[in-house]
Amino acid sequence: MNISNLFKIALRALANNKMRAFLTMLGIIIGVASVITMLAIGQGSKKSIQAQISEMGSNMIMIHPGGEMRGGVRQDPSAMQTLKLENYETLRNECTFLSAISPNVSSSGQLIHGANNYPSSVNGVSIDYLKIRQLTVESGEMFTEADIKSASKVCIIGKTIADNLFTDGSDPIGQIIRFNKIPFRVIGVLKSKGYNSMGMDQDDIVLAPYTTVMKRLLAVTYLQGIFASALTEDMTDYATDEVSRILRREHKLKATDDDDFTIRTQQELSTMLNSTTNLMTTLLACIAGISLIVGGIGIMNIMYVSVTERTREIGLRMSVGARGIDILSQFLIEAILISITGGLIGVIFGCGASIIVKNVAHWPIFIQPWSVLLSFAVCTITGVFFGWYPAKKAASLDPIEAIRYE
Amino acid sequence: MGKTVIELQNIKRDFIVGDETVHALRGVSFSIEEGEFVTIMGTSGSGKSTLLNTLGCLDTPSSGEYYLDGISVRKMSKPERAILRNRKIGFVFQNYNLLPKTTAVENVELPLMYNPAVGASERRERAIKALQNVGLGDRLEHKSNQMSGGQMQRVAIARALVNNPAVILADEATGNLDTRTSFEILVLFQQLHASGRTIIFVTHNPDIAQYSSRNIRLRDGHIIEDTVNKNILSAKQALAALPKNDEE
Questions:
Q1: Between chain A's N and C termini, which has fewer beta carbons within 10 Å?
Q2: What is the pLDDT of residues A308-324, one digit of tens each?
């Protein structure tokens, strides 16, 4: 028995029952299409989160004061005054794995320009901050070391601030805005970065020299945090070790003491977000996978009924010389053809649905080639797996009884 | 006389139904030469279906030897018998058993589909020739559900002929047809007989025996009569003698 004849026989049998074949296929089509779409949504959001994290600066290290115990009561870390400006200077001078470092102090309040006002906060930072957060100045310029030394009342503003304070569209550069009664001269506007993955407006930002914020706005000597960049993403771990060692020394902590600061890296954030999106992707894929299995059971169901319905046909084929294996192959090929064709249509539908989701819902979509291959392979295996039992049943029919079956 | 196509030696076939053993064939022996037109008759329960299944290699005897075209069938496996059926036997059934929604040519091609030695173009050629032989040369592409009973039986006969079998086994081949169409089919069988085909026609209709060359009668698993018909009637004449149909 040659295989091309078997294919011809199976194709003719399918062509004779187009509606039945289509209905059987439907389960597989929906299954494969949903697997592909779900994976595309999952992978798409993962990709976009990764992109946003690297936009935020993938080798960023954040140092914050740690919550301290006072009489058994854990204190709010933001109220801690353990992180001093000297710590920043020591780190800047001693750390070898850092490419950039900036202190961070922020004061929140209302920004006022003319008749407009907008609630925001002013971040006191050093020049390195732009590099750490991967910000660029679009117009105007960044403040200088001299501005930091003299605690100049200058600032750089983000797009959102500019839009809200300068509603008439005038150029903010050189204008004076007031923050908590202190006038600041706008010397630069940052390039827009849009929203990040957690829905935070990255353009709602005002940067000023840290000295200005510390002395003129807050009148404090401690820092709320230190931001730094490791030389490369891979060196983040070395850098955090080094920072930790220096800070413990500076804070004169004994070997048995806990850190009185916390170091966070973007890696942690990205690991956390990745695990979340991975979970979501797995969940979506599971749901879609179940629909694929249901589709497979649909194949088995219809093939099984079809074997009973076609008993006479099977008996006839056997009496004209089809062996058990020929019948088995025919039914198996029918099942595989149904599932492969269904798989192909499903792939097309899945890609189409992904594109529609992208264009209509504006969700990030990424169709990974392996997800297409995977669902295709799964549905072929489904065809063989669920086609086997009905095919086996057909092959084991007794031709004498089958041919006279009513 | 020609060569022996079928040889049965003391064939017995027992079935176990529950606790009882049913003896369907209790020692049947005969042989059929090439070119004979044999009718096998008997009432239901006489064992003629079992004999037909045995002759058609669908079933194997419990004991005894069966040689089809010189090949011993008794010890063959199921796949071997399937191949033997494919090469040596043409079946014609009472209810035609055509594939539904399938054209005449494709139906006739069916046995050759299971013969890897025959290529696609040869297969089609032979199917068309077989259909022409049964007088359906103008209905090659008609589907099975667009044909009358007589036409469907002709397609079935063409299908039985297409593999050039050693023997054609007809099981009540006129059982579902009206008198006129039955005679038309009988005419066709007589033509095939005249062209040298070996035909075994199983029926319970005693009239058909008159048109065959030999008649075997079964009862309770035994042969009770095996006679050569000296005076073969012509189905063509009988057909001509039939009263004309009003519709025609």
A1: C
A2: 888 999 999 999 999 99
